[in-house]
Protein: Diaminopimelate decarboxylase
Organism: Melaminivora suipulveris
Amino acid sequence: MIPSPLPGQPQLHYRNQSLYLEDCRLADLAREHGTPLYVYSTASMLEALAAYRRGFAGRRVQICYAMKANPSLAVLQLFAREGCGFDIVSGGELARVLAAGGDPARVIFSGVGKTRAEMRQALEAGIGCFNVESEAELEVLSEVASAMSLRAPVSIRVNPNVDARTHPYISTGLKGNKFGIAHERTLATYQRAAALPGLRVVGIDCHIGSQITEKTPFLDALERMLDLVAAIEAAGIAIHHIDLGGGLGINYNGDEPPAADALWARLLERLDARGYGDRRLMIEPGRSLVGNAGVCLTEVLYCKPGEQKNFCIVDAAMNDLPRPAMYQAYHAIVPLEDRAEGREPVVYDVVGPVCESGDWLGRDRSLAVQPGELLAVLSAGAYCSAMGSTYNSRARPPEVLVSGSAAQLVRTRESVSDLFRNERLPGNNA
Ligand SMILES: Cc1ncc(COP(=O)(O)O)c(C=O)c1O
Ligand SMILES: N[C@@H](CCCC[NH3+])C(=O)O
């Protein structure tokens, strides 16, 4: 028997030895829509949001969902209806927020490489704030806004040089990272921003990394940010909001990140102690809102014994769920039907059909499965479908959103003909 509920995913449990997300039997969804298939739980996302809100009770806080984690229109619509804003990093993301009914005034635009066209698009939409990441970007934004007879609302993203103690590819607040403006250059950059005709300073911002499982890096970043706010305001520039970014981790494999409400209770204590308790706050959580709300369902195609390794070959691959291949990330993998009794488990590498040895979803997993049976890759709500590609000309999987016993197909399966959509054979331009 597999323990239930499963770690990190409160809405996922076995009932009569069959895996359910909320009240939906996942094997039924896999049969109806085929595999690979992503399934997301509404209750799980709402509960994650509620945990933040409990932590912020009575404070002025704008939660801006970092939509890069999961840009499904259905997920965006859910957060928009809950009154959330959005942290975006491209014009494409802005278009998706607007299509999902999000409020542009609650959009903040991060990213080191905003183009002039993206700046214009965001100014036309009337977004809430640009989180500016370099002095050069500041000059360009002022120029673009002035040409539109506007003043762009800006925060400077500070690189506080704090170690988030996470995977090096997803640490963003260290001196060696490309993000933000060095702590030491911040005051001078604010003075320049205040002098530029096309800008209006509204806040200050930082984001130190992702999948952070300790409170200390957040606390260290907060102290540095408050030191800067004091220095900037002493120079006569008002900071209306403090944005502390996202980055709170989730439980993939026994990780024990602080709960959102406990983390924020601690951060608010420090804000109060330093006299900034009534300042408007912004946060940009991504993974912690959606990561444990999703699973990716896949069918076992073949079991292939080997001399050194046994392979369980499934129909999902690195193009569908790239985190293991990219970061050696761990995602739990469990059967949709718990049939282990009477079967001898085998230790497998769970791999996909893509022609790369890096195409694996799990290593050394003990499973009692046979071809034709179904597996669920857990904690697949964040940075999984979002980072998917069509590598090996594989069509993108569909997505289903469940709520109680209701299940809705919110992204249809891409057909193989979709893969030709934007291509022409040269000389055949008619
Ligand atoms: C600027 C910015 N804000 C927010 C996030 C969201 O991070 P997470 O998904 O770890 O909460 C990211 C991604 O790391 C980011 O780059
Ligand atoms: N893609 C990363 C997170 C990146 C965060 C974006 N700045 C992951 O899957 O863990």
